[in-house]
Amino acid sequence: MRQSEEDREKLGAPPANESYLTDGTTVMSWLNTRDHKRVGVMFLVAVVFFLFVGGVFALAIRAKLLYPGPFLFDALTYNRLFTLHGVTMIFLFMIPAIPSAFGNFVLPLMIGARDVAFPRLNLASFYVYLAGAVLAVWAMVHGGADTGWTFYTPYSTTTPTTLFPLLLGIFIIGFSSIMTGINFIVSVHTLRAPGIGWMRLPLFVWGIYATSIIQVLATPVLGLTVLLVALERVLHFGIFDPARGGDPVLFQHFFWFYSHPAVYIMVLPGMAVISECVATFSRKNPFGYKAIAFSSLGIAFVGFFTWGHHLFVAGQSVFDNGVFGVLSMFVGIFTAVKVFNWVGTMYRGAISFKTPFAYICGFLFFLVFGGMTGIAVATVALDVHWHDTYFVVAHFHFIMVGATIMAFLAGLHYWFPKMFGRTYHEGWGLVAASLIILGFNATFIPQFLLGNNGMPRRYYQYPEHFQALNVASTAGATLLGFGFLIIFIYLVIALRWGQRCEQNPWRSKGFEWLTPSPPPTHNFDQIPRITQDPHDYRTHAPSGVYSDV
Amino acid sequence: MSEAAALPPREHRAHGADPHLAHHFSSLERQVDASRLGMWLFLSTEVLLFTGLFTGYAVYRYSFPAAFAASARTSEIWAGTLNTAVLITSSLTVALAIHFVRAGRQRAAVVCLAITLFFALAFLGIKAIEYTAHFHEHQLPGRYYRFESVRLPGAEMYWALYFLMTGLHGLHVLIGMTVLGVIAWRTAHGYYSARYYVGIELAGLYWHLVDLIWIFLYPLLYLI
Amino acid sequence: MTENGEHHSALPYFLVWVALLILTITTYLTGRMHLGTWALPLALTIAVTKSLLVILFFMHLWEQKGANRIVIGTSFVFVALIISLTVADVATRFPLATPAGAPFGSDIPAQFEEPAPEYQPPAGKIGEPPRGVPEPK
Fold first, then answer.
1. Domain encompassing residue C28
2. Residue A255, Cβ neighbours under 10 Å: how many?
């Protein structure tokens, strides 16, 4: 826990010999690790890979949409591309990204533990994820499905494209999600260091804890749903088949009962990262710690009550439309509470405009717009106009990319020194952040306009008068792609040639900064006894606890 | 060198620590609590898994009340009732197994686990007889339905749900049997003691869940 | 591991077992009576009672930490949530949008017609326009 004197003084000096990175350098020592940090790094590599795969699919789609008529490839390929874009981005990147990569690395450090509650289950969750991913990739290579990532029946039960391995892959990845969720919940309950009560948990932990609750409760329903579709295709039981008395809308109920909470599985960890970064880069205590903490739980629970807003025009009853319309409004309240508190934290703080802070700015802007348009489409009368148009596409990309991926990048840059003991080039970081924010705006604001003007989503061809906005959107997507590429390049360079950093380069009061960067395998020489709140920038820590703070 | 670095520093392992205690837990009690909480979380995922099927049942039962009532009357009620008693008794025996291990009576515990396995097998056997009867009577799901005595719309839906729910449940019985088998072997070879019996406890919890699901399946599929 | 004094006897387990069997017989007998609309609530009440007995005593939830109780309690809340709102949808829909016109059409006996023909994708290779369908202008 206590950084040795010489390490504190030598800012550019090599770190201590032992860290989790050097502790065993064979491939097997990585593949057979029990160390949550190594599992986190392996997840990080995997999800970044799938981020790029999904991004390539997205660029292909946008390339096609430069022209209103047939271009580059045919309609069936286009359908497959948007399906695989959705499946890759959601199941292979966004659901596992922040929890399994950063959560795994940082959560035990933040609660003063040596590992997660079930280290072997943690490693298993990685292999289960890989198995599901392999199946999904196999399905992609064999052409992939053309149903959209939402797999609506009756098309999904009758389409001749390769759906079965994709469904099986998603089913298996669901298990990985559940394992991670169970691990984190139990860790937070049973592994907290002395002095870390519930009201002293770092806000990141609160967010991950709430996410884990959703993962545990919602994912099994997804598992059953994809299983039912797979069985339908093979055995023809007719559960969703109107000719047998079945109800296709029932599938939508099942699917969205998971998939709406799933969007909170994606966005809550992002909010958790932002809570950490806002406190650190404002050097100020969080405004309303309890509000932020409890609103995470609020989002987790209330998110389960709102799934019917995806079925507004599907034939759901007017009564349910009303119920879900009202309930969907409530979930916005918790997000608003968080935004208010983050801004309140930054107000009169000592802002340090580093790369993570640039992403915070992007995050806040995009979350507010994405959230407000979410409330807008949750209004039944408006959704009748906007459902299945680019308006909805823009709304959820504002949240998923604009908010969540910004938060992912913020976390990546914030914890890069912690994970690898090196710093990246700050100038390039800001350049990339600007490109991404600019590119994102250019990509998705035209889509709001397109959708409102009536362009449907998932359409291969469109009327000519939509072309200008589509070209603008594709141009933005290209910028966005360049931004990601630049990030990838300078981070990989930093991994190998980056300047080595001290233990706490951000001067953060987060508990994970109590350990060396990168940490040793066993995290702490002695389990710390915490006497301060996390994010507490008012009280001086006892000298030597945080280096140079 | 890498091996030595992988272990926690020697001075941080509690003096005379229990060999079951993992290095990242402060005490065995904490570890056992963690295992239990993890198991309860896993059980709640299983509950949510079956919930989808119960929802489908609720929706289609609401839509086709006559067909569901008529089809339930033609199910093998004796088999369902007997299976309920079998599973309840198997729950008793697995609870007794844990009780005996806590009392230090390993052999009685192994006997109880063996009896539990026997009941599980009996459950599957009765189910097999039932399924055979259904196949003969053409009480089959979806488009395979050809049962003459009940010709109502929605009867196929009842049987689709019947086979899905009992099938998924049967799969869980198989998994439970495997788990119990492993645990029984380990108990017989002295892995557990009055001080440390977490494995049996967790396996027992899983088995009780299998029983719980059946407690709800029985009236819904056979009686009403 | 702490030893609970109460569990030195196996009697509680047998008592719970007998209660469960009695409840099973009860549900069997009441299921055979024609109770109309009360059949389902009664059966569910008995099932819930049985499951509470199993959860609290066989699974020892009675003596365990609050966290475990909250976990399983929460999952049951969500079970109720998904079932109630989904059934509410079907129950309140415009009648012709429900499966097979249910519940109004459900007493009409169906004939065993041949099952609807297997869905055949339109003839032609995937990706080409189906044969017999006019080309879009």
1. 10-63
2. 26
Give the N- to C-terminal CA distance of chain C in Å, as an integer: 79
pLDDT of res. A143: 81
Q: Which of C8, C51, C111 sits opposite B212 (nearest CB)?
A: C51
- Residue with token string 């359908």: A79
Angle between helices A406-420 and A36-64 (to 10 degrees): 150
Q: Residue C117 phi/psi, 5° resolution? A: -60, 145
Round to whole Å and give the CA distance between A207 and A295. 9
Same domain for C89 and C52:
no
CA distance A83 to A150: 8
Tokens of A273: 């990262």
- Using the Cβ of C98 and the Cβ atoms of chain A, whether some distance falls under 8 Å is answered with yes
Query: pLDDT band at residue B1, thresholds of 50, 70 and 90?
Result: very low
Question: CA–CA separation, B184 vs A142, rounded Å?
Answer: 44
The better pLDDT of the pair B147, B100 is held by B100
Would C20 be classed as within a structural domain?
A: yes
Asked if A167 contacts A226 with a C-beta cutoff of 8 angstroms, the reply is: yes
Q: For every residue of A147-214, which 3-state class applies, written as one string? A: CCCCCCCCHHHHCCCCCHHHHHHHHHHHHHHHHHHHHHHHHHHHCCCCCCCHHHCCHHHHHHHHHHHH
pLDDT for position A548? 47
Distance (Å) from the alpha carbon of B57 to chain A's nearest alpha carbon: 10
Is C54 an 8 Å CB contact of chain B?
yes
Mean residue pLDDT of chain A comes to 92
Chain A residue at shortest CA distance from C74: A217
Are C42 and C14 members of one domain?
yes
Are both C59 and C16 inside the same structural domain?
Answer: yes
Q: How far apart are CA A190 and CA A201, in angstroms?
A: 13
* Over residues A126-145, mean pLDDT: 92
Strands (E), A236-310: none
Is residue B42 within 8 angstroms of chain A, CB to CB? yes
pLDDT at B191: 87
Tokens in use for A35?
A: 């160390």
Q: Going from the N-terminus, what domains does chain B have, and what CATH number goes with each?
A: 38-223 (1.20.120.80)
CB-based burial label for C43 (10 Å; 0-12, 13-18, 19+):
buried
Instruction: Mark whether C53 and C85 lie in a shared domain.
Output: no
Contacts of B25 in chain A (CB under 8 A): 190-191
CA angle B9, B10, B16 (to 5 degrees): 140
pLDDT tens-digit profile of C41-80? 999 999 999 999 999 999 999 888 888 999 999 999 999 9
SS3 A451: helix
Best of C7, C9, C20 to disrupt the B interface (most B CBs within 10 Å) is: C20
CB-CB: which of C67, C86, C119 is closest to A158? Answer: C119
> pLDDT (tens digit, 9 = 90+) per residue, A328-354?
999 999 999 999 999 999 999 999 999
- How, if at all, do strands A422-423 and A499-500 pair? antiparallel
Q: Are residues C54 and C81 in the same domain?
A: no
Supply the pLDDT for residue A290. Answer: 95
pLDDT (0 to 100) of residue B89: 96
Q: The domain A5-514 is classified under which CATH number: 3.30.9.10, 3.30.70.2740, 1.20.210.10, 1.20.1110.10?
A: 1.20.210.10
Q: What count of residues does chain A have?
A: 549
Q: Is the distance from CB of A109 to CB of A134 less than 8 angstroms?
A: no
Spell out which residues of chain B touch residue C100, defining contact as CB-CB under 8 Å.
63-64, 153-154
pLDDT band at residue C3 using 50, 70 and 90 as cut-offs: very low
Q: Least CB-CB distance to B62: which of C64, C91, C116?
A: C91
pLDDT attached to residue B33: 92
